[in-house]
């Protein structure tokens, strides 16, 4: 069930490893979009705005969870590339202990402070109650989000990008089916959409965990490997926590931006929601390329193949650039059709027009978005997750500046410039950071080879 990414053409290896991730990411988007689509079509614009207004806070918390799980998977990928299976199993076990503890703490905190966070974000009063119900129940399912993402991260670290796809397909089908059942015949509204997400996530997490235990022989624990270990926990947290914080720091800028949009009223919130969901569908493959690069870089670093890391980054940048240009063209012709998934485009003319403007100004900057994703995930895979976190700081600062300075002056147009400003700021930081990271690792590997040669000379 494992796959070695340290041999073969980097372009082909990355491309074929990415394709299942792209499909998985798209299904994950459909899984997340099901709530928005069904609520928007059957419960009205107000309900759509309620769900949409939670997007940034949702990413703030769940992005932290997903970032941590992806970070925990990087040492596992490095150990797999180095063929150190004993230490690999030890890190898998300790990642499970850390996820268990983190899920309990984070669930209690978020469920308790859901409504105060929404009030702090200046959520419009006419959608506040619906938003609190929806995101509160989503946060109640955090343990299962931890479970699925940790299992999926381990599978990808071992080179298996297909199996997580199958479980995402299952999750998406369950979520859509339960959404339709709870929202339409049972008329549970926003609460039904949230419960559908929780139930489908729980089933997916449990089934994927059982599959991992049965099918991956390399993870069969031997005596003492499942015990909590301080050094393994510190290594996991040293990479996982900065990656989780990077997602959350990025999301803080989005939360501030969402607060600025909330002041513009429910119509602006609905427009940004519909446009943002449409954009997420198109940019999901770019995130998949980044996820592939984290595993690819980690395995090749473990195998001491920095030459392959550089070739892989160049190949990934080519793939991302071609896709970004194609996405720009697709949005130019199909933006209204995709937004029609979330609202009635024949009656909500103002919202559609505002959404189209938002999509245009964001899609023009998809190329720098692709570059920052490739550089950021590659740096993370090489073990420098703190640098990637600093890129998140650059994004947060840029979005915050736009929210504070441009939105009060330019109104909705200022909000349209928030993502482009954040992406450009992150690129300006990440490119030199990537070059510096490669030089540092080249020096370390050279020093290690010289030390090994000296030891052999002494032995001879």
Short summary:
85% of the residues lie in helices and 0% in strands. The chain is mainly alpha-helical and 460 residues long.
What does this structure look like?
The protein has 17 helices and no strands. It starts with 9 loop residues before the first helix and ends with a helix. The model has no long low-confidence stretch (mean pLDDT 83). The longest helix has 42 residues, at 418-459. The chain has 460 residues and is mainly alpha-helical. The relative contact order is 0.14.
SSE layout:
Layout: H1 10-43, H2 45-52, H3 55-81, H4 85-112, H5 114-120, H6 125-140, H7 142-157, H8 163-183, H9 189-215, H10 230-263, H11 266-302, H12 306-339, H13 349-363, H14 366-381, H15 385-410, H16 412-416, H17 418-459
Keywords:
460 residues; mainly alpha; 17 helices; globular
